[in-house]
Amino acid sequence: MKTKTFKDLAFEILKQAGKPLHTKDITRLALQMGLVTEGKTPEATMNAQLIVDVNRLGEKSRFVKVAPSTFAINPSYKESTTKKEDKQVEENKHFSISPNISTKQKGDIAEARIAELVTLYGETTLSCYKPISDDEGIDLIVKKRDSLKTMYLQVKSRFGDNPKSIYTATVKAQTVFDHYSMALVFCFFDTSEGDLWNYLWFVPAPDFMKLANKLEGGKRLGFVAGRDKKDSNKWDEYLIDKRELADIILKQMKRV
Predict the structure, then answer these.
(1) How far apart are CA 128 and CA 121, in angstroms?
(2) What's the CATH number of domain 103-253, 3.40.1350.10, 3.40.50.300, 3.30.710.10, 3.40.1360.10?
C-alpha cells in the first residue's frame, strides 16, 4: 500500500473540512490519519511543502494560501487533472557538531553546501567559485557553462535545532547591489540532522533592498522569516526547495 505524502493528506483534510485550515491543524489531523514522517518537525515540513507547492505551481496547485500558514483548496483545481507524483529523496543522516566550531567555520560549511547544490542539480550545468580575495558581500560566483552569464551570491546561514525559532539575519547595506545579477541566499543548518533544512530563501538583491527592514539608519538590512507557523508573508514567495536552487539561478540569469 502506497504511503500518502504530506500534500496528499493535506488535500484530503482540506477537502473534508470544506474550509481553510492552519498547518498546525492540518498536521495534527494528518498524523491521526497515519502520516509517516521521521522528521522531528512535521508542522514545519507541512507548512514549507504547501508554500513551495503554491509558489511553484501557481494556479495549477491544489492549494491556495489565504493567511499566514493557512491554506484552502484551490477552487480552480480540477481533481481529474493528471498529477505528477513528488519524487523527493529523504535523507535521514544524523551528525553531531563540535561545540567549539567558529562562526567563520559555520559560514564556510554553509557556503560549501550551497555550492554543492548549485553544482549537482539543475537542467544546465553551472560552475561555482569562491572569490580568491575577500570580496565582502560576494560569497559565491556562479557561471553558466559555455556562457558569460554570471550570478553573485551572498550566503547567510543560521545554525540550530529549534524549528520554531524565527530566522533572522542582518546584511550590511553597502554589500548589496541593486542589480539582478546578485542574490541573497538564506539557509538554516539543522544541527540535529547535520544538514541544511530542505528549504531555503533565494532573494534577488533588488527585491531584498526593497523589502528588507532598514536598520541603523539604513546601514544594515534585516531579514526576518519563520520556519513554522510564525511565517513572514513578505518572504514566502522566495522560499524554495533547496534542490531547485540551480534552476532558480538559471531563471534569474535570464533577467540579467
Answers:
(1) 12
(2) 3.40.1350.10
